[in-house]
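Q: I'm teaching a short session on how sequence maps to structure, and I want students to see two examples side by side rather than one. Could you give me a first protein with its sequence written out and its structure tokens following it? Keep the formatting plain so it prints cleanly on a handout.
A: Of course. Example one:
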Amino acid sequence: MHQYKRSSELFDQAQQYIPGGVNSPVRAFKSVGGTPVFIKKAKGSILTDEDNNEYIDYISSWGPMILGHAHPSVIKAIKDKVEDSTSFGAPTGLEIEIAKLIVDMVPNIDKVRMVNSGTEACMSAIRVARGYTGRNKFIKFEGCYHGHSDSFLIKAGSGASTFGEPNSPGVTPGTANDTLTAKYNDIENVKQVVADNKGEISAIIIEAIAGNMGCVLPKKGFLEELRQICDEEGILLIFDEVMSGFRLAKGGAQEYFGVKADLVTFGKVIGGGMPVGAYAGPDEIMKVVSPVGPVYQAGTLSGNPIAMIAGYTLLTELNEKPEHFTELAAKCEYLHKGLDKVLTASGFDYKINRCGSMISIFFTDVDVVDFDTAATANNELFPKFFHEMLKRGVYLPPSSFESYFLSNSLTYEMLDKTIQAAKESLEAMK
């Protein structure tokens, strides 16, 4: 049985100096209860906490550790580069190399602008869309998360196509009025929102694979119909690929689904897990970005050499060895089949969603296709399952509304241990 003495002590200390004791809310274990586990180090797919307990990792730093933690080539590249300083606040040749690599890998983009997080990337993409179209409003989907910028912290109003309203204090009603919400996978709802705001919508932003209501896949034809609506109405389609970028395929969701986006946003994967993000698009749109155009966006640490060398090294590996993607998908399918078997035997209601190397378990008997159906999952069962798995050395996302992310450092032995842990956990929950 794992002991958490040191983690408990650290959490007590952290709450004295950090709001809630954490620097990102989900880490506080509020939705699962108990004391957060404080991680000391990680290698491959094994996390080690401050009490020296080890866990098989299914968070992968929320996506970017596609090849595992502390990947040797990435670590060596960082160590070598850091000798030259950590930041210049000036251009470097390395920024050109990684930008060219991203343009070569991802369809339909000509230019990339580096920023410092996925939040910043999505915030900037919306600003670019507004500047390019001359329109203020945009559509987001219930259950999709695009960072904590004011415009995105909006929930749906009472009607299907009403203006949004803030769901965080500090977000002004004026900001919320430009944010429209639609139901994921409901194309008729999208059409209604567009019709109700004819000629006023600059962009539709979507997680092509939703990862923040659990793993939720787009229905067949949904992305294609969004593309058609955008073409007909002069709206920009933005794919938020902070989670799916370079994980589903070399070219991300655009390549995987064969659907073109006008702008794409990326997160920490292009920094090998370091604080970084980017937005990208064709010349026609990106020419509105300062200093070429009037849409302003800047950042001292944007394109800093440490994040750039880490990202360049990781993306080069993925670009040169596309077999990583087929291996990851095969491992995720193996895990899916194993979990399916033990969950069926358990007698609990459940659904499993999977795409590429993203997967989620929902304790519900309803197919999960949007936020409403994801919310039908049993809120009492998931925390029990999470802690039973944690006891058995498996670290799942500490929220039922987060996708699991596999890395290719997972071995089939680890997957078997995970499936066995799930079997034992489900038996303990009865």
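Q: Perfect. Now a second example for contrast.
A: Example two:
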Amino acid sequence: MAKRQLNRRQNWRIEKIQEERAARAARRENRALEELEGGDLGPEQTGLVIAHFGVQVEVEALEGEQSGQVFRCHLRANLPALVTGDRVVWRPGNQGIGVIVAQLPRSSELCRPDTRGQLKPVAANVDLIVIVFAPLPEPHANLIDRYLVAAEHAGITPLLLLNKVDLIDEQNEAALNRLLEVYRQLNYPLLEVSAHGGGGMGALKARLDGHVSVFVGQSGVGKSSLVNSLLPGVDTRVGALSEMTGKGTHTTTTARLFHFPGGGELIDSPGIREFGLGHVSRADVEAGFIEFQDLLGRCRFRDCKHDREPGCALLKALEDGHIQPQRMSSYRHILSSLPDPDY
């Protein structure tokens, strides 16, 4: 009991320190904003948030003589939280500093829970989630399916991307083919590439053209290598794959938007690359398994858990081969990991 009380007091002190620091930063920002708005500001124009730095963001001008130029901008206090990928209305000021005056509507949001469990947007206006996996580290259907559920929940098109095809050998080829065949039967788009060897990269570039994309996947599958290959000259360091654990290391630290040379954009950040499903409901998970859609609501019992219940439409489809055991196993594993004890 005493230890819990001590931990609560320590957490309270940490929160108070963080709040005081945030308040001081906000006061400095307000003074800077007042100075800017008291001076000469240019006309309102549209811009694209390409990076976020707490109380300031970097905005790329989208129109006029300054189109393509990047400006560090302050945010007016009445604005909602902005994220990379947001489109905004802003006014340029002196010395490359501007002021954001409005946020434009988002077509999509990619969200994840923060440390307090509150849902927080991490990228906006994304229309393609590239789910990256590789022969090494060994791919798991459960993780791929989690990203597919997240994509469906956000209303964003997924693309499955098998990287490091040069690592396919006699030991892993059969298992990989079984894994991929499940998604081919479900008509998920699938590409196979090698970021190092260059194989398939032309097809990937063509697929990304005209889209705002994010890459997701477990550490070590080569996401940074893919970014380096797609964006020559961009300073994206590649984390070495640990020989001891078979897992990679995070290397990117700030959410940033990049333009592909042939068209399209990429938003890249560790907070986007790996995220959980603690914010979704059971219905959201079911909706993320597209082969379930025509079966949901057809079970004998309205509250069917699709476990052992008689008259379950999903279990009948599993028995008949219309649902693959791999997918049903993923579905059950994802439900068991959600915070609601009723699952």
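Q: What should students look for in example two?
A: Point them to this: Residues 15 and 116 are 12 Å apart (CA to CA). Also worth mentioning: Residues 2-38 form the longest helix (37 residues).
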